[in-house]
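Example record

One chain of 664 residues, shown exactly as stored in the release files.
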Amino acid sequence: MSQLSWSPTATLRKGLRIFLPISLALTIYLYFFPFFGKCAFPLPPVQHNAPADTGYHAFLETVKLHLSLPSVPVDETDPTSTPTVTPSRPLAPFRLLALGDPQLEGDTSIPTEYLGVFPHVKSLFRHLTFQTSHASLRWRLRQCFHEIVDIFFEDIFNLAESYRKRFDHWGNDYYLAHIYRTLHWWSRPTHVTVLGDLLGSQWVTDDEFYWRAHRFWNRVFKGGERVPDEVAMYPADEYDLTGYLSTSGPANDSSVWTKRIINVAGNHDIGYAGDINTNLTARFEDAFGKINYELRFELPLTNKSLTSTLFDALDNPLSDRLVPELRLVVLNDMNLDTPALSTELQDDTYSFINSVINTASAVQFKGHFTLVLTHVPLYKPDGVCVDSPLFTFHDHDGTLKEQNQLSLAASKGFLEGMLGMSGNKDAPGNGQGRKGIILNGHDHEGCDTWHYINQSFVEVERLVQSEDGEYEIERKQREWEVKRYKQAKKESLIGREDVPGVREVTVRSMMGEFGGNAGLLSVWFDEEEWEWKAEYATCPMGTQHLWWVVHFMDFFVILGAVLLAGAGVAGRFGVDVDRAVVRGLRRMVGGRKYRRRTGERSERQERLRGEGERHRDERGKSRDRGVLKDRTRSKSRRRLERRGVTPDQQLWSEAKKRLDYGKS
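Predicted structure tokens for this chain:
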């Protein structure tokens, strides 16, 4: 048998040797990206006045959750100590996995859903069957030719784009699901929230809305559950606790709340103030849960001797300590600003806020913490975050159409009302307000800020002459200010007694173009200061292109491995796979095109031979004939090799032909 110049199985084997390690490495990185990114919930400090640990120790304790390493108590306050086994430290009792703006798209972005399949074919049929009216036959034929052109340049491309879009939606769902599933498994959160814009548009039909909701619960957040209506409570003076924050176990998490998804309504879910109506809010609450409610979690005291220090109206009236409690407020803030389409729904939102304020503990008490989950961020001047202040209004009724942030007045109500802070140091609790933090979405780029008011600012009044010559009184009052959190920390604004403030974290979007980001919020209780403390970290996975490349590469590597294994099995049964593949490729690639190339080559050779006969001598002619004869003989040999004739058999066949010719 003749030897082939190219072996498909050898090429496939070499390709697998190159791409298999690359595919394996990328797959390991993709499915363990929190490990390689050293993602972990911030760890409470060993000393009560120390900052939270967001680095090595937090990551190491998360690793221990999966390895179950033994814990050895070591004094970590001594920086010179080098223990052989790193000790285990307690995790924060409240760990919130915060995800922002998944924005699931649907059929509204697929051309064939709103244009139909080959719409110009249908139009062409109507023109040809005289179902349309035209001024003349010439105009009818002209329109028919237009439809034929549109079939090739619009319908075919729209059909291909529709298939691509559907495949992209499918992949995007599982890309988002990969972020949630991997981080939920790795970081072990106690609670999970999605901070609005669950869907891509509020203007979809009910059928499309519930189809996207089905994808949300059965693809992206598979295994998750909405917060039951009976658990999502309205604020009241006499309330039932939602649950207790566990301090026991390696991850001190609750099997109930780790499955529940705390959903916040966004503008792409129910619209802005000028869009929100009862139908949009009703279907959102039906699929994802209430838009306004609160949850209250109590932290049991591990040190029972501290119970005697708690406030009691009869036994301990002078104490300012309350039972440690975390209050989680879910708020629809899309209709806080005016004008609103539905004043009834806007009144419901303000009534809810007033109930939150009226049922909150007095600001002079310690031990309660307020976590506010909203969608639209608070007001910030231009240049602080990526999104600048923006307000647009509908032309037909003047209602609010779009906004990047809340107005200054609405933000002030947040800070002074719900959190009880004040610029007046003589206010209750010295104007420090309640401990808390605000989390929201909307700004896909994300932002981490500190809102504060300087109580030491001296308010002044002075006369200022206006342009018309009259004098007016100008008042410089204390105003709320905002800076990036890192900048405020560098300027020592955080923790000052005369500068009340609160942290606001706008979680960066989990969409692929923003890096598949997730937020990790830890909240713990400091028994020495009798106050709650919080710290925030991020964990990006990477763009959606990485997810696509890895899975495409895995698919082709697995396919190649299966084909190579199949070729090995076929070879054991005597099948020459290489020869069969080469023969099939020649038949598939060759055919008429191959014969045409061969014919063109023969014509070119004949033309060159004719020119040689005219311009060369007899010796040159014979040399050309010899070359052509050798080429013809080599072609004959190749044909015989393809038939399986060996060189020895070929020589014997030629000699036998000469003998037969001589006898004749």
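Notes: The chain is about 40% helix and 15% strand.
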